[in-house]
Amino acid sequence: MSDAKLIKTIDAITANARKAASALLDAAPRDIDRCLRGMAALLDGNRAGLKKTNAMDVAAARRKNLSAPMIERLVLSDKVIDSMIKGLLEVSRLKSAMGERFDSRRRPNGLVICKVRAPIGVIGIIYESRPNVTVDSAALCVKSGNAVILRGGSEAFHTNTALAGLFVKALAEASLPRHAVQFIPTTDRAAIDLLLTKSDAVDLIIPRGGESLIRAVVEKSRIPVIKHYKGVCHVFVSRHADMEKAVSIVVNAKVQRPSVCNAMETLLLDEKLAAADKRRIIEALREKDVSLFGDAKARKLFPGMAKATVDDWYAEYLDLRLAVAVVGGIAEAVEHINTFGSRHTDAIVTESKKEAAMFCKLVDSSSVMVNASTRFSDGGEYGLGCEIGISTDKLHARGPMGIDELLTYKWIVEGSGHIRT
């Protein structure tokens, strides 16, 4: 695509998105829910075609020698399609707070003032690999009354194009503006740079993918960005832990799906935990073929454990590798997490309510778990239907983001001929 044509394309997409966002302000909630149910039906009815299209992307990814975690995220299996359908139906059943009045007050002069929940407007989603992001993002944006511009990675171009096409069909069948969901029809990276300049038409950018992609978006964007850079998630096993819970939680947090941002990347073991219990946890991880990198105390538990460097404490491995440290109790665990973590998700395993409360209070992360795997840090698991992304920022939204996080508010002031003197 020539530079002139690309500029024209991005200008048209952003202008159409702004018009669609205005039209969605007057859309009936029942039509929005009809659209989401319709998209679920279209996914179910087009499984074979979608998987055939996805196979083209997967084959190309393998030819390019993309990493195993990247390919794993790219595959559109029946399980992934079922998950998207489930998310669409759950989102359709959620109650949106759009239009809700709150924080109402009557002033001494008789003015009635309140806030009203309102959509953000036009949201740009820039993401890599996962085709389900196309459907999840579109569903949450439309449900919250926002228009969305999708720019997926080149590795999933054909799959994302097909999914976005089905969503446009679902919008039309529900009498909603077809430009409420748009997919940028090129793999040219210059399209991202152009989109990030459109502060007159786009209200928010949400990048999802690797740290390098997200940092590039933040550096170039003239539009506000909500993001998380990476998921360096910890599990701290306290001296007060129930060992049956501890082993199960640790293994699940690392092994269940190691390629995602809420998988555990560092294990912290209380030095006063019995040596046999520490070894039991290490052995359970080794049985799952997890490669371990430990500090001096951790390496005494398993002679074959590699030496951890400072880089390992900051690492987001996204595979079956794990850093292990032995710490002197909860204070050192909290210090380690707040020093090396990414403010994503961190967990404690303990039967001490006092210790759990302290951990929740002092760990500065968007999600803090007590006796639960970090893998639960997910919009679907939090009852949001699905998620638009996870934010480790502290302004506007934090943690898994659903429809409520895609709303802002405006002030409504009602008078009866009031003038200010």
Task: Give structural notes.
The chain is α/β, with parallel strands linked by helices and 421 residues long. The protein folds into two domains: 3-227 and 393-414, 3-Layer(aba) Sandwich (Aldehyde Dehydrogenase, Chain A, domain 1), CATH 3.40.605; 233-376, 3-Layer(aba) Sandwich (Aldehyde Dehydrogenase, Chain A, domain 2). It has 15 helices and 16 strands. The protein has a seven-stranded parallel beta sheet with strand order 10-9-11-8-7-12-13, with helices on both faces. It has a four-stranded parallel beta sheet with strand order 5-4-3-6, with helices on both faces. The protein has a three-stranded antiparallel beta sheet with strand order 1-2-16, with no helix packed on it. Strand 12 (345-349), helix 15 and strand 13 form a beta-alpha-beta unit. The longest helix is centred in the first third of the chain and has 22 residues, at 3-24. The model has no long low-confidence stretch (mean pLDDT 96).
Quickly give the CATH architecture of the largest domain.
Answer: 3-Layer(aba) Sandwich
Strand residue content = 15-25%
CATH class of the largest domain: Alpha Beta
What's the number of helices? 15
Mean pLDDT: 96
Radius of gyration: 24 Å
